[in-house]
Each structure stands twice: as structure tokens, then as C-alpha cells.
Amino acid sequence: MRSSRTTSARTTRWWSPPSRCISPSNAERGLKRILKAPANPEAWLEVAFDDLADPLTGRLLVWAMLTGRLERDDFVILRDRGLQQTVNVLEAYLFATGVKPERDMLERGTMIGLCAAIGYSLGRTALWGSLGRRANAERDAAFRKQLAETLLASLPKP
């Protein structure tokens, strides 16, 4: 694919994502998967990791970061507010279990989890390699488990 450039570096276009990647239904699909998953935040974190395991999703994230699209108000992530909807589901779940967390704390925790999932999904091979190890399913599962335990430990108890 040939790259095309305009006068602005922020509008440099070197790859166009398939339209299915940026459709509003992606946020809806993720939320539906969370609602169908077992009723616990650890299972919901697995949904994020599963979605990020799709190489197309990783490429879309890199493209959006490199082209400045993540900063635009009309980009699907900002427009659909899928993360806000995810926090709403988490908050409702916690309230139902008798936990009354602060909304800001839930939002930060959700962002920490998502940032860790994105970073791990995009760089797991290089990250494990920098430790002199190879990425594998066992290490992936252990990382996910420890991340979930760390995030859940920060929640207030009922």
C-alpha cells in the first residue's frame, strides 16, 4: 500500500483500518460479552485481553496513536464512550454485591487494567524476551491473574 501525505503531519495516512474495526458495534459487542461473562471483574478483564488478542485491534490502536486520531473528539473511542459504559457495568455489579466504591477510583482502576492489557497484548513477546524468557500461554495466564488480583485488591470490601 502506498502512503499518502498531506501538509499536516497529523493527517499523514499510511494505513486505513477496515471499517469493521471502528464501527460503534465494537463497544456494544464488548459490553455484551462482559454481561454474558461470569459475574466478576476478573472475567471482564479477560474480555479485554481477548479483544486485544485480535491483531487487527492492535494495528488499529497503533494506527490511531501514530496518526493522532485518539486525540480527536470524533474518534470512535471518545464518541461512543465504551470505557464509561464498562465502568457503569462494573459499578452496578459492585453496588449489587454491597461494595460502594468511589467513581473516580473505579475509573482509574479500569484505565489501569485497560492500559496494562493494551501494553501486554502489543508487547508481550518483546517484554518476556527482555527478561530472557519466551511468551507462552502459562505466562499469559499468570500475568492476567496477577493483574486481576492487583486491581481487585484496590477495591473496598463489602
Please, could you describe this protein's structure?
The protein is mainly α and 158 residues long. The protein has one domain. It is 64% helix and 0% strand. The chain has seven helices and no strands. The radius of gyration is 17 Å and the shape is globular. The N terminus is likely disordered.
Question: What is this structure's SSE topology?
Answer:
Layout: H1 25-36, H2 41-52, H3 55-66, H4 76-80, H5 82-96, H6 103-130, H7 137-153
Helix pairs in contact: 1-2, 1-5, 2-6, 2-7, 5-6, 6-7
The number of distinct β-strands equals 0
- Major sheet, described briefly? none
Which runs of at least 5 residues are low in confidence (pLDDT < 50)? 1-24
Radius of gyration: 17 Å
Q: If you average the pLDDT, what whole number results? A: 76
Domains (count): 1
Structural class: mainly alpha
- Helix count equals 7
Please trace the helix and strand order, writing H or E for each element.
Answer: HHHHHHH
Any idea what the shape is?
Answer: globular
Quick overview:
The chain is mainly alpha-helical and 158 residues long.
Give me some keywords for this one.
158 residues, mainly alpha, 0% strand, globular
